[in-house]
């Protein structure tokens, strides 16, 4: 009986480690895609104006390509969680994340389309949606690692 219990415990530990590794991979990919977007934002601040921002990163379509996987592939878990919460008649953090990041993302898509071909530089917020998702994933990763350590104790 005890050997069976140990096997169950090991299976739980293995599952938790796989989940942490998956969260870590999502965070890393999200960070890789979000950092160039964040770089475009820091060039606007007076205390970081000395930083060179490559012109191609200022292209709305490049920003769209970088932000879309973060928003809908990496951030899918938030959409699924929000859908389930709303279906059950409640709202949770996933609903807030989806509403906030989607507003920034879709406003930026709208601005990119409306200003396409003009010499007017649109105000885009692709970096906002991508960086928010990335930081929330980092928080979830820290939480998963802390839970893993506390259950090992």
UniProtKB/TrEMBL annotation:
Locate the transmembrane regions by residue number: 27-52, 64-83, 95-113, 125-142
The molecular function GO annotations come to: metal ion binding
- PANTHER family given for it? P-TYPE CATION-TRANSPORTING ATPASE (PTHR46594)
Name of the protein described by the UniProt record? Heavy metal translocating P-type ATPase
Q: Does the keyword Disulfide bond apply?
A: no
Q: Which domain of life is it from?
A: Bacteria
On whether Transmembrane is a keyword of this UniProt record, the answer is: yes
């Amino acid at each position: 009986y005890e050997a069976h219990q140990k096997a169950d415990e090991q299976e739980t530990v293995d599952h938790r480690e796989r989940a942490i590794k998956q969260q870590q991979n999502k965070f890393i990919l999200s960070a890789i895609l979000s950092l160039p977007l964040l770089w475009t934002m820091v060039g606007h601040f007076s205390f970081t104006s000395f930083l060179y921002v490559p012109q191609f990163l200022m292209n709305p379509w490049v920003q769209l390509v970088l932000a879309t996987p973060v928003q809908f592939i990496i951030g899918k878990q938030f959409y699924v969680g929000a859908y389930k919460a709303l279906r059950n008649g409640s709202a949770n953090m996933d609903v807030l994340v989806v509403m906030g990041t989607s507003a920034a993302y879709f406003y930026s898509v709208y601005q990119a389309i409306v200003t396409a071909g003009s010499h007017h530089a649109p105000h885009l917020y692709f970096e906002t949606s991508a960086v928010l998702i990335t930081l929330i994933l980092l928080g979830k990763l820290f939480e998963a690692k802390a839970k893993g350590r506390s259950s090992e104790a």
